[in-house]
Amino acid sequence: MSDRLLVLVRHGQSEWNLKNLFTGWRDVDLTPQGVAEAKKAGVALKARGIKFDVAFTSALKRAQRTLDLVLAEMGQQGIPTFKDQALNERDYGDLVGLNKDDARKKWGDEQVLKWRRSYDVAPPGGESLKDTVARALPYFVREILPEVLRGKRVLVSAHGNSLRAIVMVLERLSPQGIVKRELATGVPILYRLNADSTVAETVDLAA
Questions:
Q1: Which of 37, 73, 89, 147 is catalytic?
Q2: Residue 143 annotated as catalytic
Q3: What is the rounded distance in angstroms from the CA atom of residue 133 to the CA atom of residue 160?
């Protein structure tokens, strides 16, 4: 019986998550809480007896370190791992490094909300969620999904918005639906896929 298991995990809390800053492609590290979240994810996955065959992550250290911590807790360091900036967080352009409250003071609540929570409105010099989907989804379809459909057990450690691109397809969410879909830091979501790539089962380890 083929597993066809895909596990998605958003990186643990980062230093800029803690400071309420727009992070995007800025390469910041995990906080101690973020480290603890990643380790907890590894413990939860190990408790389910999962053995991963391959892993994918972004080009940013917060996602890579989360992956390393998860696999270390599971005793599965050394599995084949692929890193690609296609899985990077959404690029927030001119907002990167700004405190979200300061951005609201500068541009107004309504405008910042549009940039953060609309599907196709990009901040100045940055990407919309639609742009991020257009970057991350082809990589998922070309590199990650075929591994799952071959019966591999695949772990992806990435970011809130790049993972939304994958979740949008798996859960068949509309542009309006995916904007509202929250992904907690360091909480694995398990998908078992049918042979036609539809979802047979979803387990959110936060539940």
A1: 89
A2: no
A3: 12
11, 127, 147, 159: the active-site residue: 11
Q: Do strands 54-57 and 81-83 pair parallel, antiparallel, or not at all (unpaired)? A: parallel
- CB-based contacts of 58: which residues, under 8 Å, 6+ apart? 64, 83, 84, 85, 86, 87, 88, 89, 157, 158, 159, 162
Which of 168, 177, 176, 30 is closest to 189 using CA atoms? 168
E-strand spans in the chain? 5-10, 54-57, 81-83, 153-158, 189-193, 199-204
User: Domain locations in the chain?
Assistant: 13-189+200-204
Tens of pLDDT along the chain (207 residues)? 468 999 999 999 999 999 999 999 999 999 999 999 999 999 999 999 999 999 999 999 999 999 999 999 999 999 999 999 999 999 999 999 999 999 999 999 999 999 988 999 999 999 999 999 999 999 999 999 999 999 999 999 999 999 999 999 999 999 999 988 999 999 999 999 999 999 999 999 875
CATH class of segment(s) 13-189+200-204: alpha beta
Q: What CA–CA distances, in Å, run from 111 to 30, 104, 122, 127, 129?
A: 29, 8, 11, 15, 15
